[in-house]
Amino acid sequence: MSAPPNPTGAAGRRLAALAEGWRVYRADRGGLFGLAVLSLVVVLALLAPVLTPPAELDVTRAGGAPLRPPSAENWLGTDESGRSVLLLTWWGARMSLLVGLSAAVLSMLIGTVVGLVAAHFGGWVSTLLLRLTDFFLVLPALVLAIALSTVLSRGVLTIVLAIGVTSWPQTARLVRAQTLTVETRPYIERARALGGGHRHLLGKHVLPAVLPLVFATTTLTVASAIIAESTLSFLGLGDPAMISWGSMLKSAMDTGAVTAGAWWYLLPPGLGIAVVVLSFTLCGRVLETVLNPRLRGERR
Amino acid sequence: MTDTRDEFETSAASTGPPPLLRFVAAKAGGGVVSLFLVAVLGFFLFRVLPGDPARTMTRSTPVSAEQLAALRHRFGLDQPLYLQFRDFVIDLLHGDLGTSYIYNRPVAELILERVGPTVLLVGTATVLAVLVGLWMGARAAWHQGGPVDRWFTSVGLTLWSVPTFWLGLLALMAFGVGVGPLPGLFPVAGMSSANVPAGVVPHVLDVAHHLVLPCLTLVAVIYAQFMMVMRTSLLEEMGAEYLTTARAKGLREDLVRRRHAVPNALLPTVTLIFLHLGLVVAGAITVETVFSWPGLGLLTYEALRVPDLPLLQGTFIVLAGSVIVMNVLAELVYRLLDPRVRDS
């Protein structure tokens, strides 16, 4: 009842918060750089089938000679079967982004549900979930992901699953902590007093308050998911039919590009991973700062 | 100040087992439960999830139904799952991890042979990364927002965004094989050369020579986490009153940092260092693969290529188990180091 009169209502309030967030975000050069790079990479990845001839990805129809350094024809040289490294890197971006984003979303879903339930219900459910979260937090995620993708059938879905189910504990801890804080606030008590059930409380009041922070963490999770994808593909656990940055590096190692000194084959996929991962990390860090004013003084 | 002391005295005077003992028991108990969960997970992953392990084992070769049945019987796969699990746990407690499919030797034996190289690689890399990371983190926090901070943070973040194995491949190409006029300075594979004269000193030097590239690759990727942890931890101490006191005493800035701020910031860093050990292990798997370093990581890679499920199960249990044990130890050490958490 004591809320200040606001003619524009909830939508206007959200818009104002968004504008304020963007103002803080804009002040960070790293965050802007990350956002710009990511927009560019995503657009290029989406447009790959339109702008490039996919037929040239076929090993049997490759245009150039194998393992040739950059030339006017192939700007980034060729791979072991004479395909353009530029083309491969371009198409590889699609796979790395797709797997990275899907795995991060899966991890976010698991983490949010576990965190919410552990904080909201308390009792033995909470104890059990916390215990499980701590267990998975300590467990080396890559080792578990390797195990999962070895025993399940090879494919994109397996990789997404393997990364998703091994990277949720941090999100769960964060969501739990945030939920505990939110649930002490008076408006939750009010909703409870008015007879709101668990679903109403969590869905209408707690989740909207927790979600922005989850979003920031997920941005950081995408970064580690892309690294995990490339690592699994590099170890030969990816979908053999798909081109990703990790699988390119695997073929590079398997076909002796290292001993041949074929730097043009090694650099593009690795730089692709590094640039995209760094951009996601930069964006995630700034988003955290935007959403958590406590961090604002610390970093500028 | 007096409040805290009162608390200490009352807790010391209370009856029952000493709190430290209770704490150790609780932590050790938690560790045992975690280790059991690792065993359950290992069983579930490699016995239950693959559906039929006998089929997975023979994926690449055509086999008859009789051969499959014989294989299932040999590995006890024709028994109900709970009996299989019971046998599995009993074997595990006896140190029996089954027989490797590719090597046709006990998995435990294979793992024991490979532990040494991994401990050498991971240990050296962790110690170096912690030293470099803590030093840089302390510097960065002390000059927060300055050029040192900006440089350290951006270089660290960039290296952290790089896949470990890619950095390894580049290092291998640049310093192992050699690029252009630059000759290869370091060995490209393995842990020792065959043509080294006998004796301890040449052998140690040879291994150290082989260790340089894999170790530095690992350090380059992992030191950033330690740096960021130290930086955040020290930033939290920055406004503390005891630092003002130290400065008021007339201490040089350098001494205020080294003697007062850093030791306090170090404590929370300890557990976080151990919490990140899982990532170091992950890095070790790919680094060992790239440099053919004969450790547990390379063994994992050999196992997953086939796939050799018993061997993979063994490396999974050993790697996950050792990370858990290290974490329990870290919590105990933390407790001993920091009197403030002794009664929490």
UniProtKB/TrEMBL annotation, chain A:
Q: Name one GO cellular component term.
A: plasma membrane
**Which cellular compartments is it found in?**
Cell membrane; Membrane
**SUPFAM superfamilies listed in its UniProt record:** MetI-like
Per the record, the major location class is membrane
Biological process annotations from GO: transmembrane transport
Record's keyword terms, sorted: Membrane, Transmembrane, Transmembrane helix, Transport
InterPro entries, sorted: MetI-like (IPR000515), MetI-like_sf (IPR035906), OppC_N (IPR025966)
- Residues crossing the lipid bilayer are 32-51, 97-121, 141-166, 206-228, 262-287
Record PROSITE patterns: ABC_TM1
- Domain named ABC transmembrane type-1: which ranges? 93-284
Q: Report how it sits in the membrane.
A: Multi-pass membrane protein
Question: Which top-level group of life is the source organism from?
Answer: Bacteria
Q: Could you confirm whether the keyword Transcription regulation appears in this record?
A: no
Q: Family assignment?
A: Belongs to the binding-protein-dependent transport system permease family.
**Entry's PANTHER family?**
OPPC IN A BINDING PROTEIN-DEPENDENT TRANSPORT SYSTEM (PTHR43839)
> What is the protein name given in its UniProt record?
Peptide/nickel transport system permease protein
Please name the taxonomic classification of the source: Bacteria, Bacillati, Actinomycetota, Actinomycetes, Actinopolysporales
From TrEMBL, chain B:
Query: To which protein family does this belong?
Result: Belongs to the binding-protein-dependent transport system permease family.
For this protein, the record's InterPro entries field holds: BPD_transp_1_N, MetI-like, MetI-like_sf
Q: Signal peptide position in this chain?
A: none
> What protein name applies here?
Peptide/nickel transport system permease protein
Pfam families xrefs: BPD_transp_1, BPD_transp_1_N
* Stretches assigned to the ABC transmembrane type-1 domain: 115-330
Q: Where in the cell is it found?
A: Cell membrane
Keyword Cell membrane (UniProt): yes
An example Gene Ontology cellular component term from the record? plasma membrane
The Gene Ontology biological process terms listed for this entry are: transmembrane transport
- Kindly report the protein's main subcellular placement as a broad class: membrane
What does the UniProt keyword field contain? Cell membrane, Membrane, Transmembrane, Transmembrane helix, Transport
Q: Where are the transmembrane segments?
A: 28-49, 119-138, 158-177, 211-229, 265-291, 311-334
Q: Which domain of life is it from?
A: Bacteria
Membrane topology recorded in Swiss-Prot or TrEMBL: Multi-pass membrane protein
